[in-house]
Amino acid sequence: MTTVLRCDGLQAGYAKGRPCVRDLDLEVHRSEVLALLGPNGAGKTTTLLTLAGLLPGLGGTVEVDGTVVKAGHARAASRAGLVLVPDNRELFTTLTVEENLRLAVRARRRWTAERDAILDYFPGLRDRLRVQAGALSGGEQQMLAIGRALAQHPGVLLIDELSMGLAPVIVERLLPVMRQVADETGTAVILVEQHVHLALEVADTALVLRHGVNVLQGDARTLAATPELIEQAYLGVHDGKGGSTDPLVPADSVQ
Ligand SMILES: Nc1ncnc2c1ncn2[C@@H]1O[C@H](COP(=O)(O)OP(=O)(O)OP(=O)(O)O)[C@@H](O)[C@H]1O
Q: In terms of domain of life, where is this protein from (predicted)?
């Protein structure tokens, strides 16, 4: 298993000396889908924004493919392969689907091939290429946002609340595509998701943040089979088994 992303002691937040995510260690491998879970305000978005270089580094290190990525530099993060799909999708709403994709493709000469590779994952966009992004349905907008991120050939795709504003049936269709992308391209995916059981169905591993601290992590299938552990992690109830290792690590370090 090749490690793509490694974080050691990551501190993330909005003001120096006041991290809302503390001492986060992460190791994500090629083709791995990690579900980053936790209650509202746990620090999931803050973690993704920090990995994408959109918040200043407050401490700790981030490495992609063994190379340290300078904190707080979005361009450096993107060059290293950390690509964010934000929860508001940030599409160019007055440009067409095709224009949105075209802007994201770096290898201009291979534009048609790149576009077709993206459309293979999201065939529903094929008929919508000339439609303005602002006129798409929520699900189509999310497909375009993810497609645009894929055009950058991410090493690690950071997806914040894929399900935001979408009907569960659409989420059920989109999440397996993320699994397929990871399997076929080797891209690692960090998925912030409120639909816990849906996320665990496609993820390899999961980590629960609460009050900015990792309170539970482990194999996604094992966690899916023990929903009471997830519930306890969300509620801040721990069974005192901290320090155990694979496949689950109930972290009892949260006060
Ligand atoms: N722009 C900001 N400035 C200061 N604090 C912020 C800002 N955005 C978020 N926070 C705080 O950071 C903490 C973590 O928030 P974050 O949005 O990362 O949580 P989350 O787990 O993504 O929650 P949700 O599931 O509700 O989106 C919260 O205490 C929140 O109030």
A: Bacteria
Query: Hey, whose CA ends up nearest to atom 16 of ligand 1?
Result: 43
Burial of 67 (0-12, 13-18, 19+ CB in 10 A): exposed
Q: What is the pLDDT of residues 191-206, one digit of tens each?
A: 999 999 999 999 999 9
Domain that holds residue 113: 88-153
0.95 surpassed by complex ipTM: yes
- Residue 169 domain flag: no
Residues in Cβ contact with 214 at an 8 Å cutoff, skipping those fewer than 6 apart? 23, 24, 25, 207, 208, 251
Count of domains observed in the chain: 2
Pocket of ligand 1 (CB under 6 A): 14, 20, 38, 40-46
56 occurs within a structural domain: yes
pTM (predicted TM-score): 0.91
